[in-house]
Amino acid sequence: MKIPEHVAIILDGNGRWAKEKGMPRNYGHTVGAKNVETICKAAHDMGIKYLTLYAFSTENWKRPDAEVSALMKLLDGYLKTCIKTANKNNMRIRVIGEIARLEPKFRERILEVERVSAVNTGLNLTIAINYGSRDEMLRATRKIAQECMDGKLQPDAIDEACFAAHLDTFDLPDPDLMIRTSGEQRLSNYLLWQLAYSEFYFTNVPWPAFSKEELQKAVEAYNARDRRFGALKEEEK
């Protein structure tokens, strides 16, 4: 079975999962956060090299203040334990997104996690925090425009590779497979540039219940796809 090199996941359904159990939404977020390590280990055991998780979007700020506060506290707590988890699992951790809006201590923790885990050689885990793909592309465009104004870049030199090099994911391969849990079938402003040729897999299973077996199902579905990339397969030429 062919294992995708890079899998991106939209972690959806925490609140609905909790509601079905008669619990508050924040309980779902807590259980969902604990599930991250489980899926990271499963991905590594399967041979997946890169895993990118959509943890907090630029649109999530529009949620009720109490929920946003709880989410940020949960993410902060997760990052506190990330160094220990990363070293235990030989995992490298990166964070993408506009982190300037986050509190200084939160930003410092992100930089520390990235620095300490940079030497690890196992799974490459990328966490999208305060991330939105349109925001990412606007920031990349501003960087390119500034470089042109400074004379460091000629407009004729701007191509796909140049643009990709200015994105948050400049050092990551594009995802082979995108998974969204909990039944919704949209990208929600996630990796719009990077997912151009990815396979999509949607499951009704909410994130807190998404297991190693569910990840296996997604990879099996990926293997069943007829990947052409806009051209004929060799045997059809």
For the structure shown, list the relevant keywords.
six-stranded parallel beta sheet; 7 helices; 14% strand; globular
Q: Give the strand line-up of the largest sheet.
A: 3-4-2-1-5-6
First and last CA, distance: 25 Å
Give the uncertain stretches in residue-range form. Answer: none
Content-based structural category:
alpha/beta
Q: For the report, how would you describe the main beta sheet?
A: 6 strands, parallel
Helix content: 40-55%
- Choose one word for the global shape: globular
Q: What percentage of the residues does DSSP assign to strands (E)?
A: 5-15%
Number of helices: 7
Number of strands: 6
Mean pLDDT: 91
How large is the radius of gyration? 18 Å
Q: What is the succession of H and E elements?
A: EHHEHEHEHHEEH
Question: How would you describe what is shown here?
Answer:
A six-stranded parallel beta sheet has the order 3-4-2-1-5-6, sandwiched between helices. It has helices at 14-20, 25-46, 65-88, 104-117, 133-149, 160-164, 212-224, and strands at 6-10, 50-57, 92-96, 124-131, 177-180, 199-202. It starts with 5 loop residues before the first strand and ends in a 13-residue tail after the last helix. Helix 3 (65-88) packs parallel to helix 4 (104-117). It is α/β, with parallel strands linked by helices. The model has no long low-confidence stretch (mean pLDDT 91). The chain is globular and about 60 Å long. Helix content is 43%, strand content 14%. The protein has seven helices and six strands; from the N terminus they run βααβαβαβααββα. The relative contact order is 0.19.
